[in-house]
Specification:
It is a single chain. By secondary structure, the protein is mainly α. It has one domain. Helix content is 81%, strand content 0%. It is elongated. The chain starts with a helix and ends with a helix.
């Protein structure tokens, strides 16, 4: 049986898997062709939003790995961080389910498999952090 200690380790490392996938986004989604169509400010905003998202996901992974014992003990600040991470990934799942359409994604088996794997990882992240928070609240 997996313990919260192991699940948090996997969840922390899982953030770096998300990053590995995210670094493929510009090429897989044709940003070299698409972004030049935008005005310079809009193009720059896309890159800034992307950079801040990457920074946030790196921080989630680093904080989870660095504060794992605090999260396990139920320290308030660490549990608050876990709650925010759970909300972040739950929101990302919600966007995937309710806003994105299958037709929005590029065609191809590799993209479809990658999408399924990412949704599974987002679900895992949501479940681990959410369960930890509920465990400490109860």
């Amino acid at each position: 049986m997996l313990t919260f200690r192991t699940l948090l380790l996997l969840a922390g490392l899982g953030h770096f898997l998300v990053l590995a996938a995210s670094f493929q986004v510009p090429s897989r989604l044709g940003w070299a062709e698409e972004l030049p169509r935008l005005r310079p400010l809009n193009r720059k905003l896309m890159w800034v939003y992307g950079a801040f998202t990457v920074l946030t996901i790196v921080a989630f992974g680093v904080m989870t790995l660095g504060l794992r014992e605090e999260m396990l003990r139920g320290d308030r600040a660490a549990v608050a961080i876990a709650a925010f991470i759970a909300v972040f990934w739950a929101a990302r799942l919600g966007v995937d389910v309710f806003y994105f359409s299958h037709a929005d994604w590029p065609p191809g088996r590799a993209v479809a498999v990658g999408h399924v794997l990412l949704v599974a990882l987002f679900s895992f992240q949501t479940a681990v952090y959410g369960s930890l928070v509920v465990h400490h609240l109860l």
